[in-house]
Amino acid sequence: MYAFQQHGLERRSVPDWSIPAMARRYIELMRVVQPRGPYTLAGHSFGGLVALEMASILATAGQEVRRVVLVDTFLPDQAAEQSNAVEFGELDLSNPSDVAPTGLRAAVADRTEFLRERVLAPFGQIGRRTRAYGAGMFRWQGQQQFRAFFDHAVVVSRRHRPQVYAGPVTLVLADGNESGAKRWAPFLSGRVDEVRVHAEHSSVLREPYVAGLAEAIREQLG
Fold first, then answer.
1. How far is 166 from 50, CA to CA, in rounded Å?
2. Which domains does the chain have, with CATH numbers?
């Protein structure tokens, strides 16, 4: 098994600004170790869109792709929604209680909601776009470097429309992901299998959940 990551993440370099460009880069690297199929491709989150594009390119070139596994991958329009939810979650200043606030607490809650929605959120979006367009060319410290490439992936995915793919696909869906076969139907014309895993989007690749994910994928591959 071989893994790929975004170009420029570890060494300063201009990243790819389209999913087809990423797919072509990874195919070229993959063919160094395995010139011909059959291939099994998998991608988590944004990586699933890249894996699907790789499969389309390989199939068009006459190469065999046994299966594509999309691990909690959202369609481009949903990816944008998910990224916004994460950003707003980080800025959430609202009352966490299930009980509706009254009086002074209600007034404070209204003010903090206004601050969050009208003042902080736009600055947060500007910051994310700055990171996205600077990814690869500028270096951030620690987690900020990964966030820059996350923001870059969001921008790239918003511009992408997947090709219709006819090969077998497995959709691995974590908690909260409603991107089932129906929503993917316009882009997947072949056999589609759904596997539900009880894990959060980011933790699905970590212990203890990754063992269950590996077993589910093994069953799909036969």
1. 16
2. 19-88+157-221 (3.40.50.1820)
